[in-house]
Every structure is written in structure tokens, then in C-alpha cells.
Amino acid sequence: MAPFLLAALPLALVACGKHADAPGAGAPGGAMPPPEVSVVTVTAQDHAVELEYVGQTAGSRETEVRARVAGILNKRLFEEGATIKAGTPMFQIDPANFQTQAASAEAAVAVAQAKVNQAQRDQARLGPLVAEKAISQKEFDDSKSAAESAVASLKQAQAQASESRLNLGYTTVVAPISGTTGAAAKSDGSLVSPTDSLLTTIVQTNPMYVNFSVSEADLLRITKQVGSGLLAVPGKKSANGSLGFSVNVKLADGSIYPRAGKLNFTGERLNPTTGSFDARAEIPNPDGVLRPGQFVRVMLGGASRPNSISVPQRAVIDSPMGKIVFLVTPDNKLAPRPVELDGWTKGEWIVTKGVQSGDRVLVEGFIKAHEPGMTVKPVPYVAAAPGGAPAAPGVVPVAPSAEKAPVAPASAAASAAK
Fold it and tell me: For residue 150, with 0-12 CB atoms within 10 Å meaning exposed, 13-18 middle and 19 or more buried, which class applies?
């Protein structure tokens, strides 16, 4: 057996040697190689900032169409929900009674005119007689007064006739403005009156208004940042003093409405009901995509953070001590660092404290590398999509914890707190 064992020994040694050289066998001494992680080297630069608020669309002009005379509604003359031009007939109220009143008023005008003519003729006949002392001055003065009274009665009759013609005209209810009609509130045969009868509404949707509000706390924060130079905002451009922000709106499906608008109103007084300042944007809407009453997100562009630092959203993680990032030191070791965030720009958080220009920040690889002091192999981070995006379409970016951000282990939190 000994010769056989001696012959088999070299084969066993060769097999062991191959196993030792196999891939993944580890570094000398049995240590695992440093895990590969993606990092980004941050630099201070000017970052565009969008201020985002919840808004609701409204027509630039909204009008209630009401009856101006009482009567029976004979017919609706428009198509509900259609676009209509100002002056277009919309409803017909039974005109018979008003036609009779108008005819009676015209007859009263004719009677008053006849009385004026008679009084003027009488005055003309008495004029020569008073000059010849054939009649007294009082008789002549009485005739003159009668003529003046007849003229006044004529004017009164003419005014009543004009009112009757107006009321007759009001039996045809016309559109006061151009816009989109609502549903008819009264059906044919209904009794309508000026006091309580809403017939329909008309909304002018081009341009469209978007009403939103800025909280008192948010306005104070922005004002302080502008005063300290942390935030730059556009100058005043419009006659009413509104800032020259560009305005875009984000729809309910997360898409951006393709037409930009402008601010056309910013309130100077705090609304005591909402505790905020009212504002309004004006958005072109020639295609009718926006409809009144929609909830949208108003994005004000044009502001910037000078000489600021941003990091990708996924680089910020939660810990018991708050938000932190992992820095990769010059000797490629992990070092947790608490950070303060303020604002969102193109898929990245603005960092106001905790990170400096030139720092390398861990972005991907938290599963493999999350212990402070751990040695890593850094490689440049390549973003999946330029500009990034919020966690869900149509949702304003929120704290990473609300977006299921990675959670730092207790050891990292303890190290960051030191």
C-alpha cells in the first residue's frame, strides 16, 4: 500500500493547489476584499430650486347666469358644457306678458305726446292775447305751466316705455361672457325670478387661474434665507408687484403641464382663516386641458441656492440620531456624518450642514458597507436617470424616511453622534 500512497500524494497536492487558486478564495490570510461601493464627489455650485405648493384651478372669469325678469322658462337655447360666446342667447322666458306691457307703455307715450301738443298749441294761442290785455297774465302762466307739465308727463311715459322694452329684451337671456357653460339649473316650464333663480354658470378657462397659498412659516423661512444670501429669488417684474417666478403645474398623474405661466397676484395680508398668504398664478389654457376645480401642484421656478451642495436622494439615510450620510475618507474608510437638509433640486437634496465641497459621499452599496471604519473600494456613481425624480409621480419629495430610505445600524448612529 505504501507505494500506492506515495504515487497518489502528488495528485492530491496538485488538487489542493488548484482549489487554493480558485476565484473568490479570498485575499492572503483569508481576508475578504473591500466591497465595491458607488460614491459621488460633491462640489459647491449654484443649484436651481423649485418652490412647490398645492393649488386648485379656477376660471379666470366665473359668472352666474340669472334671470332678470320673472316668468315661465320656455326653452333652453344652448348646449350644456359647450363653449359659448358673449351675447349668445341661452334661455327664452315667455315674452307674452312683457310684450303687452311694452305695447301699453308705447300707447301711454302716444297719449302723453298728444297732451304736449295740445298744451303747446294752447300756449301759442294765448300768447298774443296776453299782449293785447285780452286775458290776464295768470291765464297765460297757467297755460305755460300746463305745457311744461305735459312735457314732464311725456318724459315719464317714455321712461316707462324704455323699461318695458328692456324687460321684454330680458326675456331672452344671453351669455354675459365667453366661456364654457355649466349644466342648466332650471328645466323648461319652470317659474324663474331675479331673486332666486340661478339658470347656469359660465367659466372662462383661457387663461386659467391657479390659486394657492404660502404658509406663514414657509414665507418667514424664505425671507430669512434670502436675507442671509442662502437663497436668491427673481426680481419684481409685473405691475402688481408679483415676483418674476416662472410657474409650471404638475397634474394628478405626475405629468407636467406643457405651458408655463406667471404669478399675477401675491397677497400682502395674512389670511386669518388659513394662516397663510394667498397667491395666484395665470396659466395659458388654449386647448382646454386644465379644468376648473382640479388639484395641482404649483412649481415656482427661478430661485437658486448660490454656492450650495447637493447629494443624491438615496445617499441620505435614517438613523436614530436623524439624517446621515456616509463619507468615504481619503484612506477609503466609511465615516457617518449627520446632515441637515433643506430643499430639493433635480432629484437631489440640498445639504446645508454636514458635507463640504470635495467630500466623497456613499450613494450605493449600503448592504455591503454600512459599518463605521469599514474599508471600501469606491467607484464613481452613475445616476440611473439624469435629473432624478421624486419617489412617486405627483408627490412632493419628502423626508427619506417616508420613502423607505435605508436605515443606518446602531453602530453608525453612535459613531455619527460623536
Answer: buried
C-alpha cell belonging to residue 44: 459647491
User: Average model confidence (pLDDT) for the chain?
Assistant: 83
Confidence at residue 252, expressed as pLDDT on a 0 to 100 scale? 94
Q: What is the average per-residue pLDDT within 335-347?
A: 86
pLDDT for 23 beyond 60: no
- Is 348 within 8 Å of 364 (Cβ atoms)? no
105 to each of 81, 112, 159, how far by Cα in Å? 39, 11, 9
Q: Output the nine-digit C-alpha cell for 398.
A: 419628502
Cα distance from N-terminal residue to C-terminal residue, the chain: 67
Say whether pLDDT at 408 is over 90: no
| 132 to 126, 129, 135, 136, 137: CA distances (angstroms) | 10, 5, 8, 10, 11
The pLDDT of residue 415 is 56
d(Cα 361, Cα 43) in Å, to the nearest integer? 11
CB 98 within 8 A of CB 171: yes
pTM over 0.70: no
C-alpha grid cell for residue 273?
382663516
Cell readout for 260 is 408655463
144 vs 241: which has the higher pLDDT: 144
Residue 3's pLDDT band, with cuts at 50, 70 and 90, is very low
For the chain, which domains are there?
Answer: 34-47+307-417 (2.40.420.20), 51-59+205-305 (2.40.30.170), 68-91+172-196 (2.40.50.100), 95-170 (1.10.287.470)
Distance from chain centroid for Cα 341: 25
The string of pLDDT tens digits covering residues 185-203 is 999 999 999 988 899 999 9
- Say if residues 149 and 175 touch (Cβ distance below 8 Å): no
**Can you tell me the distance from the alpha carbon of 400 to that of 406, in angstroms, rounded to the nearest whole number?**
8
Q: Which residues on adjacent β-strands are paired with residue 297? A: 54, 250
Q: Which residues pair with 305 in a beta bridge?
A: 47
Residues 300/49, Cβ–Cβ less than 8 Å: no
Sign of the dihedral through C-alpha 61, 65, 68, 74: positive
Burial (0-12, 13-18, 19+ Cβ within 10 Å), 148: middle
* Cell 437658486 -> residue: 304
Residue percentage of the chain with pLDDT more than 70: 82
Residue 161 dihedral angles phi and psi, to the nearest 5°: -65, -40
Q: To which residue does cell 397667491 refer? A: 279
